[in-house]
Give the backbone structure.
Amino acid sequence: MFESLKQMPADPLLQIIAAHRADTRSDKIDLGVGVFRDEAGVTPIFRSVKAAEAYLVAHQPTKGYLGIEGDPVFTDLLRPIIFGKDGGDISLVPGIQTPGGGGALRLGGELIAVARPDAKVWLGTPSWPNHRPIFEAVDLEVREYRFADLTTQTLLFDEMMAALSQAAAGDVVLLHGCCHNPTGLDLNHDQWREVADLCRANGLVPFVDLAYQGLGEGLEADAMGLRIVFDRVPELLLAYSCDKNFGLYRERTGALYVKADSSDLARNVASNLAVHARVSWSMPPDHGAAVVRAILEQPDLEADWRAELIEMGQRVRAVREAIAGAAPSLSAIAHEHGLFSNLAVSRDQVDALRIHHGIYIAPSGRMNVAGLKVEDAPRLVVALAAVGALPSS
């Protein structure tokens, strides 16, 4: 059976993890792996999460299966955080718990492939490396366009709109809700409105990936792009992740919401989601969702969670400002959002940063700014200059 299989290339980020772990230098810096780190270099467990877990130990009554849809209270408690105070009409926007945001993207892709197998997915580049493989795995065609110029650290909105104007009715537009991965470049409100109006006029279906809400400009501000689109289009898919903004990386905690044009269509959507979830993971994992539910059901824990998110956002912005302050040619980084920025560097320059300076970034040039201590920003700039990767002012 397995004689026809060939060795597959290792994931670049897994290679970075292994190389960084094997590096014995005490001053090594990991800017590759996409997790939040505090100023001590630790990915902390939230205070609110620890409190919620203690609560669950004392009060959780069972470890029985959740059911195919997962915990409906979990998905309902997230609604006002995502969609605003009204939380989105449940009769028009069914939600289903998924194993992380990646599970939500895959389940959404399967729904699209059944509903409109000839739909094309329009994807701005660079993007999260797993976006394209997820949609191609369900036999959807992916069309790419340039989203950002890495040399100038600018968003190419005109190119984006020109590309999406070529999409056909029924095609899907993948949009990063906030804190774009890997560039940190986000649409402004006027640009979100233009995209939403184009989608509505041309019959395009937005698929919003909201994986970092709260780590950019704050919970409300980071949801505004999604809400602008949500209010303007009849159909929309939303993949949501709690892995980052609750620090539940290894718990794989997410949800998929789908806006339909009528309650009858919404019921059909929900039934199809359940069928595809059943054959993919049968029942979603409980612990992460139970933690989120415990936090959002208790006002004191929710308040502490919100305070922790503010602290995380402040640290990320402080690192960005430190990088920009150390190099005027990198000033754009201060105005980007979330964990990531993408430098215009070659593979040789990435290797030189690792070999000669102990600084690890992804081969694509994506760096996790939250992996950097504020005090190490000047060292990063010196290293970039030494390998010829610092842009000219």
Notes: The domain at 65-297 is CATH 3.40.640.10 (Aspartate Aminotransferase; domain 2). The mean pLDDT is 96. The chain is about 45% helix and 15% strand. The two ends are 57 Å apart (CA to CA).
